[in-house]
Amino acid sequence: MSSSTDWPLWEVFVRSRRGLSHTHAGSLHAPDAEMALRNARDLYTRRSEGVSIWVIPSTAITASSPDEKDSFFEPAGDKPYRHPTFYEIPDGVKHL
Amino acid sequence: MAAVTAHQTTQKTLGTANAAGGAGSTAAAGETDAAAADHLAAFDAAVAADERIEPRDWMPDAYRATLIRQMAQHAHSEIIGMQPEANWITRAPSLRRKAILMAKVQDEAGHGLYLYSAAETLGTSREELLDKLHAGRQRYSSIFNYPTLTWADVGAIGWLVDGAAITNQVPLCRCSYGPYARAMVRICKEESFHQRQGYELLLALSRGTEAQHAMAQDAVNRWWWPSLMMFGPPDDASSHSEQSMAWKIKRHSNDELRRRFVDICVPQAEALGLELPDPDIRWNEELGGHDFGAIDWSEFQEVLKGNGPCNEQRITQRRRAHEEGAWVRDAAAAYAAKHAPAQTSPRTPASASASAPTSASAQHVEETA
């Protein structure tokens, strides 16, 4: 019987105002996407916290593994020259 | 709250999607002692450095079990807590008060949902948590086993019960477990309205007729001591405190928070023109805080055992609400199943208002959340 099983889990992303990107707000259960949107509105925007909501089935998200944290992000670790502060510029040079 | 991450941990990393507390032990079973020691060292270092533990991180089984117990109890308290105040929605004295009370009770439902979601990141399920509540295997706060006898009780609950909850919850915003801490930030923002509406309600009664003033005083008399008990047993009798402090789930001891609450309430009661029902409250210059009378812990233990005024009523009502809502859940599930082909894809036209989020952007949000 359906009531003996949890509805699927959805991740909720809310755009708090125009010009900002959607940010993860939390998750909720709902039987389908339309109900997930309605539930998200009731749960995460009761005080006008959003102007747009995305809901995504939690199972559709692929995430990196925390166990690989070091090796996965390692390529960026030895490239400080990607930051502007890597370069020495003489005092007094402006707009650079 | 990223419940997805716990789900995927159990699926991918550990090869099992079993219930509460399972993930840590299955991980340890398949590992060498050295790897387990590395994991524990990384966990301890993260806690020591005040970093947050996130759902997919390795964590000790006991840490996971403690969090599930605490978060489940917290979530249950939010939804059981809807009952005593909901009793007064139809009898609110004005449309203004009625709208406020409905919004507050709706908030409590929302708080329960934030916390259930956060608890689910630890590998338990909503269904399992509700089953345990209904079977009496997980608790909710004893405070909700007291009745709301008059309209003034709605004010006393807002001021004292929500006030005590806020005092407890503000430090939880810095709890070591990320999803719990984030849920608490959201909850604390909303609790402030709860407390202020209660205080305002009591103030109106206190400044009203003699009978209204007496009603407000009576409510405060009845809710004061149970509110102090909300902080839990005294430090020397609290079984979970020490380990929870070490894990930075808790940041302050029960007695410390209780004293802080008394210090906050004394001047607030004066401003209300109401008395706190404790003749032993007095300023202690040396401690820089208030002394107060001894708490009757036998009453606390009795309510905890199920012998409070409303234990039976609360859990019966909760079970009934769940059972009577079954047809709604069934209907929604049947509708979803019928329309499944059009709605299971995350890239239906319905989401065309914005570019459909790719898994890459979702990951990005996950990392920065």
UniProtKB/TrEMBL annotation, chain A:
<protein>
    <submittedName>
        <fullName>1,2-phenylacetyl-CoA epoxidase subunit B</fullName>
        <ecNumber>1.14.13.149</ecNumber>
    </submittedName>
</protein>
<dbReference type="InterPro" id="IPR009359">
    <property type="entry name" value="PaaB"/>
</dbReference>
<dbReference type="InterPro" id="IPR038693">
    <property type="entry name" value="PaaB_sf"/>
</dbReference>
<dbReference type="GO" id="GO:0097266">
    <property type="term" value="F:phenylacetyl-CoA 1,2-epoxidase activity"/>
</dbReference>
<keyword id="KW-0560">Oxidoreductase</keyword>
<dbReference type="Pfam" id="PF06243">
    <property type="entry name" value="PaaB"/>
</dbReference>
